Amino acid sequence: AQSVTQPDIHITVSEGASLELRCNYSYGATPYLFWYVQSPGQGLQLLLKYFSGDTLVQGIKGFEAEFKRSQSSFNLRKPSVHWSDAAEYFCAVGGFGNEKLTFGTGTRLTIIP
Amino acid sequence: GAGVSQSPRYKVAKRGQDVALRCDPISGHVSLFWYQQALGQGPEFLTYFQNEAQLDKSGLPSDRFFAERPEGSVSTLKIQRTQQEDSAVYLCASSPDRAQFFGPGTRLTVL
């Protein structure tokens, strides 16, 4: 069975500081990995995705993520956060021939001045 | 271009009522998905369509839940005899290939 673990329920970061959100997955084959962001009352916006190839992927809004197969991880990073990055972040896993996504429980990001 | 749209955005139902939630996918997207998101949780898969064919309905929690996409475009998720535990946000996503693009969701509250 596939699963995603986001160990941090809530993270608080100062504006301008760097950010790393953790994601560990379990999947029996080569995974497809995704990060989504959800603002209050909104749907999910795709930040970035990994299917194959270069393990460091760039996304929108200055985010990047690195796929590490040996650690079953796909952590999200941003060098300098902005107040507008405050939101809920979800990591998700799927795979070839397995179109449904399995999501983690999310990490809520708070930005302080 | 237009994204995925869902209607209504909010629905309040009395326990035992039937509800119908609509999803308009991005034009040309072959795949369509429904997810249920409980408060404070990540979305959970309900069902998946490729064109008009429902290929996976393993996530539907009971036979009170029914989804259709008769012409391979708009989809409707129907919940019969709603229960309080059905209260959640119902998210629709469409996909041209492997990445899924989500609508704003319908927040269902069952009283």
Commentary on this structure:
The complex is a heterodimer of chains A (about 110) and B (about 110). Chain A has about 110 residues and is an all-beta fold. In chain A, about 0% of the residues lie in helices and about 55% in strands. Chain A is built from no helices and 12 strands. In chain A, strands 2, 5, 6, 10, 11 and 12 form a 6-stranded mixed sheet that branches. Chain A has a 4-stranded antiparallel sheet with strand order 3-9-8-7, with no helix packed on it. A two-stranded antiparallel sheet of chain A has the order 1-4. In chain A, β10 (about 85-95) and β11 (about 100-105) form a beta hairpin. The termini of chain A are far apart. The relative contact order of chain A is 0.34. The model of chain A has no long low-confidence stretch (mean pLDDT about 95). Chain B is mainly β and about 110 residues long. In chain B, strands 2, 4, 5, 6, 9, 10 and 11 form a 7-stranded mixed sheet that branches. A 4-stranded antiparallel sheet of chain B has the order 1-3-8-7, with no helix packed on it. In chain B, β7 (about 65-70) and β8 (about 75-80) form a beta hairpin. Chain B is globular and about 35 Å long. Chain B starts with a strand and ends with a strand. The model of chain B has no long low-confidence stretch (mean pLDDT about 95). Classes of the chains: A mainly beta (about 110), B mainly beta (about 110). The interface of A and B includes residues 51, 90 and 102 of A.
Sequence-ordered SSE layout with sheet pairings:
The complex is a heterodimer of chains A (113) and B (111).
Chain A: E1 3-5, E2 10-14, E3 19-21, E4 24-26, E5 31-38, E6 44-50, E7 56-58, E8 64-68, E9 73-78, E10 87-95, E11 98-103, E12 107-112
Parallel strand pairs in A: 2-12
Antiparallel strand pairs in A: 1-4, 3-9, 5-6, 5-10, 7-8, 8-9, 10-11, 10-12
Chain B: E1 5-7, E2 10-13, E3 19-24, E4 31-37, E5 44-50, E6 53-56, E7 65-68, E8 75-79, E9 88-95, E10 101-102, E11 106-110
Parallel strand pairs in B: 2-11
Antiparallel strand pairs in B: 1-3, 3-8, 4-5, 4-9, 5-6, 7-8, 9-10, 9-11
